[in-house]
Structures
1.
Amino acid sequence: MSVTRTRYAPSPTGDPHVGNIRSALFAWLFARSTGGVFAVRIEDTDQERRIPGSEERILDSLRWLGIEWDEGPDIGGPYGPYVQSQRLEGYGLAAEKLVELDAAYYCYCTPERLDAIRAAQQKRNVPTGYDRRCRNLSAEERAQEEAENGEHRVVRFKTPLSGRTTFTDVIRGDVSWENRLIDDFVILKSDGFPTYHLANVVDDVAMEITHVIRGDEWMSSAPRHAMIYEAFGYTPPVFAHLPLILGADRTKLSKRHGSVSLLDYRDEGFLPEAMLNFLALLGWSLDDKTTQMTRDELIAGFSLDRVSASPAMFDREKLEWLNGVYIREMVPETFVELARPYLDNGLPPGILRPLDDGLARQAAMLTQDRARVLSEMPELCDFFFTDDVSFPPTLIWAGMGDKAMKRMADADEDLWRVPLPDDAAVVHEWLNSAANAIEKIEPWNHESIETRLRALVEELGTSGRKLFGAVRVATTGRTAAPPLFVTLEAIGRERSAARTRAAATALLDTQLARS
Ligand code: GLU
């Protein structure tokens, strides 16, 4: 069997979109799973749409995910990608060859004339397209046009006027287009640059691509490509057009749905392994149940026949969940390292910097199993670093398990406006006693903190759930935080005691203010 060869052929026209990188991933997975070759080709022949820096961002996206390419121009180090603007000569020769084969012709129509045709077609409400005026010029007419309008000369493909163009897409099945619906499209522009259609086919032939795996939006270009292959007498590659990606509202994924740039996800703190896993499931599945797969498992399991023809849903919730799964599986030390810059940059400006290394380490370790995205880290553990843990006093009752308060807190209702419950004086006493006890705990570690606070539960005749819940809110400002005793250990004795006492005082103050 001959070796499979795939490619990813992005245009450097902006930030690489997740859908675009999904195409790269599927082409790469297919090459890897079949022991084939994967190449990257920058399609930059539309120089007007070129956005500086975008090529680098495309390659960075691939590198971040570990999608490595196997060949390309030798730039003295790892291979560069193929770049179309550096291969212009071949496209000009190919266009001439098509003219020789009577499959293409020179067209001299001026932009003004083309505009006028379009305007007239629009006025008559008929599909727009070139009227084929130059398709059958005599030799004399051509010579005259060459002299008068030579600078406007383009090469157009001579689309058959009747019949159908048919090709097979491994995902969609047989696809057939009526030729009369396709106009004589430009293949070489007046500046000598090829259009996408010509350059794409010429390069796929030159690179001996066996499988063209790309997004669904290129489906309508495929008949043109099939025609060019046929005109040259080349066997077309296998086409695989990947299903559309939809946002949560079932419309095509776009900026309206939030970020679509792959590198934004990197910067937000998604892990490359999780992103790779997630992207692979956008239109492909191993079976009906497997969601978590490593790179090697993806390579071993990938096949084009399990790519679905129906649209895939980009479910951010699922991505966050999956990322959380990968975060929990990380070696704590690695997680600490990854989380650190997010803490350094994301914690409020008032916090003393540089952060205390030991505290940052503990904070990260204690919140590792709660984080879904690294950028959540500052919010998840700010209380380790700041004593400003202000919260509505009634949140303490939510922390103690009071159902009504808990419901309101979960619904994000304004608890500041809720009056203190009748047992506020009792809870005030508990917190004061807890502060007194905490101040004296020796040695300061989670074991002795636990022993002392459990004893206090007995002394006060309350339950652990209530007392620990109250102390948790008092010291962290939230009802859900890492396990209490280790959290207090990390926060420190004096700070834990002071916060607990401050919460007790706040209860009294609030009560006094109301009475
Ligand atoms: N240059 C096209 C793009 O930007 C390539 C489409 C294809 O893979 O043929 O996606």
Note: Residues 493-514 form the longest helix (22 residues).
2.
Amino acid sequence: MRKKIIAGNWKMNKSYDEGMALVSELSNMVKDEYHGSAQVVIIPPALYINALSRMTADFSNISTGAQNCSNHVSGAYTGEISAAMVKSCGGKYIIIGHSERRQYFGETNDWLAKKIDAVLAENLNPIYCVGETLEEREGNTHFEVLKTQVSEGLFHLSAEQMASVVIAYEPVWAIGTGKTASTQQAQEVHAFIRNLVKEKYNETVADNLTIQYGGSVKADNAAELFAAPDIDGALVGGAALQSRSFADIVKAMA
Ligand code: 13P
């Protein structure tokens, strides 16, 4: 059975002390309330990964990760962090190609393909984000856009490498807007992505692929989304900034 993953992307929010307090509360909540097999991934600003990895080391259902990394291994790249650095701080997952990185930092599919390689070279798990803008959905080009993002970012990988990849479908129009994709819209895209992977690789690779939904996921819409056959968890933004609301989303998976 494929892995279910609920990840909280804090983006550029929380002071160090606020982050420590949040995770201290959260780890106790998900321990008490969730007994299933879903993995909880905390994705704070990179500065906090080390401390949070240590804090959650005894919780087998909690991991940490980074919001981005360089495609380079090391060297004169001021301000960048490498996948190896994330790993050395205890991180297991790295978000690659979040729409905010694509939009504000000019990250292209070609560039992201190299970042994916950098993550896999450290035996970490990339969470590769794809998603269409409102204009693309209204123009009915979203399937084409998603196909290009998935194939250019990932389809140079071997089937074995694909086993470490998580895909997050995050429609740009649903991020931070309070406007979630309907379960039907999300399920349709998830099934489409899984089918692309099946055509490129095989049925086993496609069946084992975790595809998260992201975009205004809240405790009150999570259970319905998670009940869809191809939705294997969530990449949560705003609702991950409070322990209670994030724990309730984790609970919705159980
Ligand atoms: P929101 O949950 O705030 O819409 O953010 C989603 C997101 O971008 C997670 O990566």
Note: The pocket of 1,3-dihydroxyacetonephosphate is lined by residues 9, 98, 170, 175-176, 214-217, 235-239 (CB under 6 Å).
